[in-house]
Amino acid sequence: MTDALLDPAVLFFVLGIGAGLLRSNLEVPQPVVRWLTLYLLMAVGLKGGFTLARSGIDADAAAALGASLVMALLVPLIAFAAFRLVTSVLQAGALAASYGSVSVVTFVAATQHLQQNAVSFSGTMSVALVIMEMPAVLLGIALARRGDAGAQATPWGHLLKDSARDGAPLLLMGSLLIGWVTGERGATVMEPFSGDLFKGMLALFLLQMGLDVARRFGDLRGLSPWLLVLALAIPLAAAATAMGLGTLLGLGAGDLALLATLSASASYIVAPAVLRHALPDASPALYLGLPMALTFPFNLLIGIGLYASVARALA
Fold first, then answer.
1. Distance (Å, rounded) from C-alpha 93 to C-alpha 87?
2. Distance, CA of 290 to CA of 283 (rounded, Å)
3. What is d(CA 145, CA 137) in angstroms, rounded to the nearest whole number?
4. How confident is the model at residue 73 (pLDDT cuts 50, 70, 90)?
5. Which of 10, 14, 243, 249 could bond 63 through an S-S bridge, CB–CB 3.0 to 4.6 Å?
């Protein structure tokens, strides 16, 4: 875990939080942030595709993808049951959608941590990232609508259509396919883009993320302490469940750590964008504030190192 905290990209995240708390005027311009988001999605997809081209799809890859689909359905159910103890059906459903879905940035940080510690992982986990993104959001919305008649505004067909059009998973999956098709030749050609530049771009993106997190701390004021506890307990429970499932399926240390990281991460980009239209009465302070201000920093500073250490011990 110490290695994770001393990673330059993570330290830039801490710098961003500090600057935000000091109310500094430091900020990465939004057009640059948008460009960095596109860059990270492309680079992660390409790297996953190149790795997948080397390893191929075998029984281990099928097991990893099966486990990711199970976790995509199981985590929102766990989150809904836990949050329902302290909040309404509507809010619990929205939180289940956010906590069941995944964070691309947390995944990227986890892959960097594994590479830094010479732990190998397969390109299959980039496919798992795509698989796990939307099912939880749709399941969380269904759970919320079950108990709240006012949440019926957006038809399912419209939601599915918007999900299919969302640029983030489309770019990620498209880049992965390009990396898979081009293989070693593509890896050599794209190395300066997807390799040499990657760490610096991630550090710059995490600097802005730190600033954003500091601004979200205000959303936590006045919330039940139990909500704050669950924002940390649910990711740990999800990671432990993923570790158990992945160990039973014989996943390697790298894939096991990434499955746990994905299961423990929470979406603060894709899920909130969908929830804003699907559940307009749900509180963004909960489904956006908790993942961004608590869960994301916890995973980045502590969780990733913890999951990787446990995975190495189990595999």
1. 10
2. 11
3. 12
4. very high
5. 249
48-63 burial by CB neighbour count: b if 16+ within 10 A, else e? bbbbbbeeeeeebbeb
Q: How far apart are CA 59 and CA 65, in angstroms?
A: 10
Q: State the average pLDDT over residues 23-52.
A: 86
Q: Where are the domains of the chain?
A: 2-18+28-314
C-alpha to C-alpha distance for 52 and 49, rounded to whole angstroms: 5
**167, pLDDT greater than 70:** no
> For residue 234, what are the contacts with CB-CB under 8 A and spacing of at least 6?
75, 78, 79, 82, 83, 99
140 residue type, one letter? G
The overall average pLDDT reported for the chain is 86
At 275, list the tokens.
Answer: 């929830």
The CA distance from 111 to 46, in Å, is 13
What CATH number belongs to 2-18+28-314? 1.20.1530.20
Q: What is the pLDDT of residues 84-126, one digit of tens each?
A: 999 999 999 999 999 999 998 899 899 989 988 999 988 888 8
